[in-house]
Design goal:
- By secondary structure, the chain is of the alpha/beta class.
- Helix content is 40%, strand content 19%.
- It contains 15 helices and 15 strands.
- The strands form three sheets. A seven-stranded parallel sheet has the order 3-2-1-6-7-8-9, sandwiched between helices.
- Strand 8, helix 6 and strand 9 form a beta-alpha-beta unit.
- Helix 1 crosses helix 15, helix 8 crosses helix 13 and helix 11 crosses helix 14.
- The N and C termini lie close together (8 Å).
Amino acid sequence: MLSRLSLVTETFPPEVNGVAMTLNRLSANLVDRGIDLQVVHPTPRARYEWGQAVSWDAVNVFGFPIPGYPEAQVGLPSWLKLAQIWRQQRPDVVHVATEGILGLTAALTARAMKIPLVTSFHTNFHEYAKHYRASLIKPLVIQYLKTIHRLAEINLVPDPDLIVDLKGHGFRDCRYFGRGVDTDLFSPEKRSDDLRRQWGVGTDGLVILHVSRVAAEKNIQLVLDNIMTLRESGKQPGVTGVIVGDGPERKRLEEKYPELVFAGMRFDEDLATHYASGDLFCFASETETFGNVILEAMASGCAVLSYDYAAGKQYIRTGENGELVPLGDAQAFSSAMIALAGDKERCKQLGSQARQSALKVPWAQIVDSYINELGALLKP
């Protein structure tokens, strides 16, 4: 039975991204179930306050910012520190959640100490290469990722289709590890008329919402192009675009589209209020391993439009609780987005059903499955 776990990650709150939020939610639920949890991650560099009480053993290591992504870090090799803390208090399992230098050294250290090792796949780094003019290095990235994941007894992956893709690249021992959503935090009850007025939205207006890191790999430009088409056509007056998040593209886009709302990074209740105050959530990213924002938008009562893969494929049924279009079909995405923006009543209906679907995906059952998966690695 699993009783002590060491989680090693190069991203964790107060950093804000899908991986950090997923691992934070996982950690909180593990502690609630009585698991003695240790979280190893680089010393935070964030400039904002993180108000949540830490209920696990936090072990900080040295790290350095990722070029072009300074809000995130790569942990430095920490062989001696990892070996020392694991000799002092040996974990039942080591879970390496990220594939940076810290993740690689943690995986090698766990294997050397014969501690059961689990890894998880959270980010399609090999698919990011094309967005940063680095397609030639994609095979090298895949080989590096395989080097780490092949050290583990099992690799946890959040999407069944991604498991097939990874196996095609030579990854082994992949298991499905789903995601949940906090439906108390993300709720239609958080909708704020005051916030909508700040956005300049009238009673008949429609807010098209996007939440993510503002970066090239998120394909935000497609969403923005369609918002501008809607605004300039005059056929759907009162359409407003709200972009929540920060990243390397924010300054350029904010200057290019002064008529849109760039809300920056939002957290906790404030983030939940932004979600719930939107009407139509449009997510055009083609590089997600899962896409937590889709479940968060559904839980918040937004109609959701996304491509037919990852979280969208798992939880959205077209015409019932949202809309999906074929992956990579920008024209289909644009057509669906313009049609939905012109039918606010349909957005309300889809958003209501989306909320009901999200209620069926609590974090509790995800964490129970995780504990059982890791517990099965332990010898009786």
